[in-house]
Design brief:
Layout: H1 2-13, E1 29-34, H2 39-58, E2 70-74, H3 75-81, H4 83-88, E3 94-96, H5 104-112, E4 118-120, E5 151-155, E6 157-158, H6 169-172, E7 177-178, H7 181-193, E8 198-202, E9 211-212, E10 218-219, H8 221-228, E11 236-240, H9 249-257, E12 264-266, H10 274-279, H11 286-299, E13 304-311, H12 318-331, E14 335-340, H13 358-381, E15 387-395, E16 401-405, E17 411-415, E18 424-432, E19 437-441
Parallel strand pairs: 1-2, 2-3, 3-4, 5-8, 8-11, 12-13, 13-14, 17-19
Antiparallel strand pairs: 6-7, 9-10, 15-16, 15-18, 16-17, 18-19
The protein binds S-adenosylmethionine and iron/sulfur cluster.
Residues 37-38, 166-167, 169, 204-205, 241, 243, 268, 270, 308, 310, 339, 341-342, 344 line the site of S-adenosylmethionine (SAM).
């Protein structure tokens, strides 16, 4: 979501003459768009700010506010820490949360005319989406690229009312809010008109989406997906992140019969222990998660799953952790994100007595990640020899090679025509590399020599 927000900030600033640059040293305005979800991410902001202070000083503006480069801290760290940032880093010019970046032009103007720092961490009554322009080219503007984005993010829902006891999102992103169907559709059409063939619908709890249609009726995520699926030129739809509690019959049916909806679902479970799920306030137990997976797989047998898991939640015993491993063994995930519990200020779990020692969290994380890695490798190996539709997104590093993704979000490299970029083509999977699959056009030189797959991050 921060990638999406950063692109929208670039859109808001474009009329003021700001263009993205590749090098911070060349910038007149530097925005750190921050994440507060775990301590490590939040602390990184202060080390990055230290480097920017040196940069500011080297450009001779150490003592001045006017001139440049202006330095801003945006996102959830800004929302959570507000004035504390200005206290620890007084050379920062602007601090604003995720709900106020549509006011960036006013903030920049105010700071540039020397009227002091800007601090805006409100939850304004006017939703920011009403004030944002249609996207210029989400996904490419930030990279400074000329090539239209083949895949794009689109925020449809934001905030959260679920208050899991470990999580800062309800405090930093605020209450749950769904954009109207018409607003989402207009943005989707703009993205497709600019070359996007795949849209990933975003929300902290994207399947809690309940947006108004033009007639005033309210539709859930399934209704929204079916509307967007009618857009010509849009080949693929994905959504993330969904909550197990909000997987309804309509969404399962959508996975069964909406061809544009990809058979890949990120459905965080967090723990395989009922005791821990209850302490986390997740609102479901392990049996319900299993049932949901069974129903999804019955509707869409080739559905691949991904998840989020936290190890070392306060009070997690060896038996609780074993239950998580058991659930992972039973469900099998194509990919997953796993984290050590990080005590976040202001959340109930941070105050619990039974904090798990760091060394034990490390040990559990390694055990879990070894299992998840083995499952991912086995899932990827299972693709070898199969023909899969791949949406090609860009040229790869090696001459003649292009890169894209399978329906299951696996990165693929193939020796294929550059003209395929932006479109879906069937390719045969030849081999599995550490970070991507290698493929060849069906009926083409399948046994011909192929360059080594480029390393790309998962
Ligand atoms: N709304 C999604 C859900 O309910 O599953 C999750 C969104 S959250 C922004 C992304 C992931 O960060 C969570 O699924 C969780 O695994 C992880 N996370 C959140 N707070 C955490 C914490 N305090 N410590 C460790 N991981 C955390
Ligand atoms: Fe955080 Fe997700 Fe729980 Fe909301 S549902 S509090 S975003 S983990």
């Amino acid at each position: 979501m921060n990638v999406y927000d950063s692109a929208r900030m670039a859109d808001v600033l474009a009329p003021l003459g700001y263009q993205p640059v590749d090098d911070a040293a060349a910038a007149d305005l530097i925005i750190l768009n921050t994440c507060h979800i775990r301590e490590k991410a939040a602390e990184k902001v202060y080390s990055d700010l230290g480097r920017l202070q040196l940069l500011k000083a080297s450009r001779g503006h150490a003592a001045e506010r006017a001139g440049g480069p202006l330095v801003a801290v945006a996102g959830c760290v800004a929302q959570a820490e507000g004035e504390e940032i200005l206290r620890r880093a007084p050379y920062v010019d602007m601090v604003f949360g995720p709900q106020t970046y549509h006011r960036l032009p006013e903030m920049v103007a105010r700071v540039a005319r020397g009227a002091g720092t800007a601090l805006d961490t409100e939850f304004p009554p006017e939703p920011k989406f009403d004030s944002l322009p249609l996207p210029a080219a989400v996904g490419t503007a930030l990279a400074g690229g000329e090539v239209p984005a083949v895949t794009a993010f689109l925020t449809v829902q934001e905030g959260c009312d679920k208050f899991c006891t470990f999580c800062v999102v309800p405090y930093t992103r605020g209450p749950e809010y769904s954009r109207s169907v018409a607003a989402v559709e207009a943005e989707a059409r703009a993205l497709v008109a600019r070359g996007a063939a795949e849209l990933t619908l975003l929300g902290q709890n994207v399947n809690a989406y309940h947006g108004q249609e033009e007639a005033g009726t309210v539709v859930g995520l399934a209704g929204l997906i079916r509307r967007l699926a009618r857009i010509d030129g849009l080949a693929r739809i994905r959504y993330t992140t969904s909550h197990p509690r909000d997987v309804d019959d309509a969404l399962i049916a959508c996975h069964r019969d909406e061809a544009k909806l990809m058979p890949f679902l990120h459905l965080p479970v967090q723990s395989g222990s009922d005791r821990i799920l209850s302490a986390m306030n997740r609102g479901h137990d392990v049996a319900e998660y299993r049932r949901t997976i069974d129903r999804l797989r019955a509707a869409r047998p080739d559905l691949a799953l991904s998840t989020d898991i936290i190890v070392g939640f306060p009070g997690e015993t060896d038996a609780d952790f074993e239950a998580t491993l058991d659930l992972v063994r039973e469900v099998t995930f194509a990919s997953a994100f796993s984290f050590k519990f990080s005590a976040r200020p202001g959340t109930p779990a941070a105050l619990l007595d039974a904090q798990v020692p760091e060394a034990l969290k490390d040990e559990r994380l390694q055990t879990l990640q070894a299992l998840l890695r083995a499952q991912q490798e086995s899932f990827n190996r299972g693709m070898v020899g199969r023909v899969l539709p791949v949406l090609f997104e860009r040229a790869a590093r090696h001459p003649g090679q292009i890169a894209g993704r399978t329906p299951y979000l696996q990165a693929v490299h193939a020796q294929a025509p550059a003209a395929w970029i932006g479109t879906v083509h069937d390719v045969r999977i030849l081999a599995v590399g550490p970070n991507s699959l290698t493929a060849a056009p069906v009926g083409g030189a399948e046994s011909g020599p192929l360059a080594a797959p480029e390393r790309i991050s998962a």
